[in-house]
Amino acid sequence: MPSAHLLNETSTPNEHSSITHSGISSTPGIYVYALGAIVLGVTGLVWSDFATNWQRVPANVPLRQTLAYLTAVCELATGAALLWRRTARAAAATLAILYFVFVSLWVPPILRAPAIYDSWGNFFEESSLVIAALVLWASLAPPGSVWAARRTVISRLYGICAVSFALDQLVYLKGVATWVPKWIPPGQMFWAIATTVCFLLAAAAILSGILAGLAARLLTAMIVGFELLIWIPKLLAAPHDHFSWAGNAVSVAMAGAAWVVAGSLNHSPSKSN
To answer: What is the pTM of this model?
Structure first.
């Protein structure tokens, strides 16, 4: 798990206004986020393709399979590079750029059919990964730098994504309920509504700064719960299905992204936790 050299920096009172590398790396978020990139890379190499529904690269793009391989190698390399202090900041910048490309691919579908929320939902899911990468980039910046000073503001932008997560579930509430395991009481629709409300409450807290750290941690726990209760069982039921592997990879990456944001807000100088 954590490499020793990631944890050996200590903060001083003068550095309190900027999260230190020790602060961000002492939480599991950076490791889960890195794991998500690594699993995305491995999945891309095995299936010679992008992450199905999430990395929506048109079929008519020239050299599409080659680009899929290059993307997979990039995800694998940058995920590993996040685990080393000397390469972590460059890896965060690379992932921010890479994930932003996939964010931009959702713009044409949004413009063609703005009333269909599915494209908006995917846009903000990918955006959450970009925001986490930018939070890491800022948190690893030299204390007192412009980026370090903007770390909290960047972290708060994640609240917009949480609003979208709630709207996505609200628009497709009946479909969301079918994803809830039937054995969990009191019922599928109850948990579909409850998690939608939780997304909205977390978004309000993160955007307002009131109990933002606590809200981000609870939101992270909820996304981790989705992975454990929904995506892992789907993978076990269909271990040779590309969609199941891609879904798990994206789910892990999103859990890591939320965890990174929670770690950042938890170390914020403001009273956000």
So the answer is: 0.88
